[in-house]
């Protein structure tokens, strides 16, 4: 089994370097590999990032902003059989090293590299390319060009620098990179010399890397080249070094003249479009003139600055194995959720994020399919591959037509199905999970290609209960309501696995929909959450008065009317208390509670103590939980109630109701107080009791935090999910056998 040295050459990209290093923890390779980071003369926090990874990685330093020099330092440090280069703004897919290693099955193979996604993560920046001895690239090669690998070939394959690997012995044989080429054509020039030395360059159809194309000292935030000197200089240098046996000097110079004129045209194009200032044209003239002067002089010179025995001796060190996340039962798991942070912060979005990140932290390859409002994009976030997809219009299948699946419901589910099929071309997908809301898994159910898990949340039936005006809309019920209710029933009874967050939601659904869940397919797994963004016990904005926090939509099901009805008695008992109401101020079909409150209580002494704050950003909400003394959510029904967990993990006592799954989360009299749903009198008493007793608030808050850590962490939720996925796959395998 080949050993690898992964070399990352970095310069002033601390944040993206951190992401690249983090992504290596998910590499799946049976052999050994080490990670070497060579830091250029960075002036940002790159040193701090590198220090935080020691001794897991090895670190080197390059004194100049010269990529070839930095790469040679990495080669001299490397002790693996193969040296693999990846940029400091790139993310490899888990199979990267395994697929690179498979290319080295012949000693003639000197280098291998795979496909490179652009910053979208969805379309390609690089597939297969060739270059000629003048340094001109052909980006439309269409396939591997190994047949051009013979000494003195005018055209030859080359590898993209962000996804390139080379046999170390071959690198040392040819002297590594030419340090005259500080940027641009560096890996092309190396591939040229390797081909001349008799080696084969293999361009692979996989070994994927995602290149996020961060700004640098050469290009700006809009990916516009701002420093063209090295590009033009090295094109001239390369063509003179390698092109003279094939073309007359006059032809080579004319080719370079066209190249530099093309750059001038590009500068003028961006100036005309307002993307560059007028001063860039004079800057280009100076850079171009210097590039020609230096490129000609050094290109006509026979000298090259390569790896020497002295450099090799100075860089030598011991191989240091990098340890990725180990999971012998690693699986590729797909979660479908059109709601996902940061664009959404509801219960399903929060659940999907916390489950995905916890599964990823355990070493699984986790994909989340969610909505995009602009383009298809794929990003690696907190150990999770997040696929943001634009919903496509799709013709309904015969099965979808027979089930009367509404077109927009089908369009999203079919869009997600198509993306999972694309994922499956990279790796085997073990299971797909989707929420019951909007029946997001319907296309997967009808397709049957993978085991499907449905997670139970608020269903349409319960939503209609709190929106009676929709039940009275006969046309809406005929065209959408009734078909979706029937479809929800089909989803809950026909899938291979069902996730329930509480016993209460199971009972309520069985009563409402008139069926019993198959106990062999059902697992009750309470929701869990990751650590709070604000450490528990931290008060961001201290206040003398007791702060009571409500978080939720301003609708009857969440009990906002009950809370407002309870305020006069609460304020009589605790007149200094501050009540913060966080959530959408109005909702179609319901009372404007903020307006109604103002009309009723504007003249009271405590009116200003009640603050309607609307929807808060995630950081603002985190601070609100940290600052409150009491959390209240008097819902008439909750299948679970993630808001209670958010408060408990901050060590806050909670006031809820006995409805639904809330008693399965809140221990009455221990972590908080439970009241009767819809009863403002009992709610006022519970809030008053806590507002007047600091000791009780503290003891219940501490008990709540302990209960959260013992029962409601995301890690626990993810681990309990393994059994659900296993039974789902077993059931699916029986049906396809």
UniProtKB/TrEMBL annotation:
Residues in Glycosyl transferase family domain copies: 544-706
Keywords, ordered alphabetically: Transferase
Keyword Transferase appears in the UniProt entry: yes
Start and end residues of each Glycosyltransferase 2-like domain: 5-173
Any one Gene Ontology molecular-function term assigned to this protein's record: glycosyltransferase activity
Location of the Glycosyltransferase subfamily 4-like N-terminal domain: 346-528
Signal peptide: none
PANTHER family according to UniProt: SULFOQUINOVOSYL TRANSFERASE SQD2
The protein's name: Glycosyltransferase
